[in-house]
Amino acid sequence: MMAAAAAAESGAKVILIEKNKRLGKKLLLTGNGRCNITNAEFNLKKLVANYGKGGKFLFHAFFVLNPQKTIDFFRQLGIKTKIENNKRVFPVSEKAEDVTAALKKYLLKKHVLISLNSFVSKVNLKQNRIEKLMIGNKEITAKNYIFCTGGKSYPATGSTGDGFNWARKIGHSISELSPALTPINLKRNGMEKLQGLTLGGVGINVFHNNKKYIQETGDILFTHFGLSGPVILNISKEIGELIKQGSVKICLDLFPYLNEQDLNNKIAGKINKNPKKIVKSLLADFMPRKLASLFIKNSGIKVGKQIGGMAREERNAIAKFLKNIEFEADKLSGFNYAMITSGGVPLKEIDDKTMKSKIIDNLFFCGEIIDIDGKTGGFNLQACWSTGYLAGKSAIN
Question: How far is 364 from 130, CA to CA, in rounded Å?
Answer without folding.
Answer: 11
